[in-house]
User: Fold this.
Amino acid sequence: MSDPFRLDGLVAVVTGAAGKLGPVWVEALLDAGAAVFAVELDGAEISSAFESLRGVHDETRLVLHRADVLDRDALIVARDTCGRTLGGVHVLVNNAGIDQPASVGGLVSHRLEDVPLDICRTILEVNTLGTFQVTQVFGAEMVKARRGSIINIGSLYASVAPDARLYDHMVLEPPFLKPPAYGASKAAVVNLTRYFSTVWGPYGVRVNTLSPGGVLGDQDPEFQRKFNDRVPLGRMAVDADLRGPLRFLASDASSYVTGTELRVDGGFTAW
Assistant:
């Protein structure tokens, strides 16, 4: 019996591919047999994890292309380039997004009533409108081909509000707040998932959200302790926890799954 989790011969597009989580999705897809067209913002730094993947896979398996998810003309060029270099897209991972604009610089805090509208606008535009536009451009080709899987990357904060107590040990005045627009943008992505899944389902295109919980990185030890205490499984996610769910949603293993949000959060949102 063939492995329904395999993606041999398929082409996957991943936006925000060279940043923090992008290489996790790219590696999962490559390991499953897909060729990956990696889209990253022009001028954005390429992570060491992505460079490692480029050192293993040549351009018949992994292509890096620069484009802004808010620039429709650039996305059309990206789609056409993908078609010429790797072929028509079968899987789309909408990963490009921001938590807090780089221009803010580090842990800058505001009182909730003083959060600049420009910060909210940037987050909402990239995370929500960017996801919408990429889905339009690449998804329309899937509709024509009458097949495909679109995976939008959400967040546990699409479902719950950030707990300010996780950050109250940080010495900042005013106290640090997660950007309020971040969760709103990811909740909108979950709803866009439902919307596209109902409209494009008759054409064989599945659309789902994968929402990670907290992913272990360079967080300070006190934050990690507090966060782990909130998770039923008692720890933050590591990269290996995310690859399997991504392969599931990308592959025929989830052939009757659409319009859903798969939370990979260790149970954080269960209480």
About this structure: The chain has a mean pLDDT of 95. The two ends are 39 Å apart (CA to CA). Residues 11-263 form a domain with the Rossmann fold fold (CATH 3.40.50.720). DSSP finds seven helices and seven strands in the chain.
